Amino acid sequence: MLKKRSPHQNRSIFFPILRILGSWIIIILMILGYVFSPTPVLAQLQQTAPIIVDGYPIFQVSQSGQFTAEQRADEANRLLRESIRNSNDPIEVRIDNNRELPVILVDGAHLLSVTSSDVPKGRSITEQAQLWREQLQQAIQQAQYERTVSYLVREGFISLVVLVLAFFVTKQLNKVWKRWIDPFIDRSINSTSSETGQPHTQIPTQPKPRLKFVSEILLTVLKGIIWLIAIFFVTSRFPQTRQITYDFINILRGTLITDAISLGDSQYSFLDLVLLIALLIALVFLAGTVGKLLRSRVLNFTGLSRAAQDTIVLMANYTLVFIGAIVILQLWGLDISSLTVFAGVLGVGIGLGIQGIAKEFVSGLVLIFERPIQVGDFVEVGELMGTVERISVRSTEIRTLDQISVILPNSRFLESEVINWSHGTSISRLKVPIGVAYGSDLTLVRNALLDAAKEHKEILTNPPPRVFFQGFGDSALNFQLLIWISKPYKQFQIKSDLYFIIDSMFRKRGIEVPFPQRDLHLRSGNLPLEVSPELINSLTELSSHLASWIKHQSNSKSDN
User: Which end of the chain is more exposed for a tag (fewer CB within 10 A), N or C?
Assistant: First the structure.
């Protein structure tokens, strides 16, 4: 018989997997933040732009006269691409010092002039031009080499091996996951299934599908990371794909770091929002860790119930998240005071809309700290009867005898009559009515009922069962058997089993259970009925005809 774990046990398995998934998300966001770091913004602030060869930034050029850094870099990059694409012979990079400023030439074509704004402190213009010439010559030679057939064949083979290896690794990861992780989740669920004494049949519960779902998400994230690494490696091996990748990342990075959202007097980009989300996610996990430490180091030694501990931890988490969010928003640069009016209007609207939620929240606190009902109690609320599975600050979950989970608002337990069969003690008394036929031996009936109660293992011997003769009924002598049980949720099953035993006992001892019946007793010999003259005449005529027919039948038989 499978038994549902408590909510705390469910979370004990669910949260570690969720933490792993959250950690991967934070790592990915940090990587994205690093990859899309605002270097173009810094370049714009410094009025510089990169010279690029096949996706590799070589050096930065600055603004010169009426030409911006971007214009100089775009023209130089265009010339480099055309030269590398159209020339199969070695490309020569040299410096023309016959002009006012050193000019870098690529196969005799003007690439760019080296100005004083391009030179850092402590270096001359000539030295800077010579350094750039060497860097360009080396980059162009590498670019031409990467376009040779031997290089393409070798790197194509390596790329194919990497893709096959990524495919093999993901397949093996699937096998490892199914062999180790999934069975571990199943064992973790089943290992705690027998720790509670609550009634449950073999009906799947929600934690297992939820854990499976989180596990599949984590597996998908890991496989996605493997394929991203493989694809990034392959695209970085070829000049064309590397240039496309660089352009794509540069465009995406420019989109992310462009100010797109205005809050108050500040402008924020999409990357700022990504970093803010990462910080808020980290704050949520930090608050969860603090809550766990609060429970394990402090609350476990206070003697509070599990529901009370959960409520305190939940309130502590909300408080930490609220305060931490305000601090993060201020550090992020958002002026909180500019949102005061908006927050006030929003607060009034929310206040009007959450009156019901506030009512349930207060009711939940009363239930948790006064404890009129607790997790594991067998209760009856209106027409519902079942075991309390979970008590939260807003609602309470009850699992009925039909194994159906019913979520009830907490206020219902305070505003209506609630029968708690387990309050204080789970020992409860059941009344089993039974009727026997008139004329039965009452002592024999009493002994049979007591013997039947003794045969059932779920019926307590202390307090002992008792039999009361309730009186003379219309059809039977009415008795009532009082028994005591320690598992109220089994009362219907116990009653059914007991009736089977009583029926067997009565049959063995000759005790009859009567059918419902009514006896009619007349004080005089005649019924006081009045018959109409017409009916009397009809009956007389009918009787005469019947006598004639009988006489005729007798004469016919005599003649034969």
Answer: C
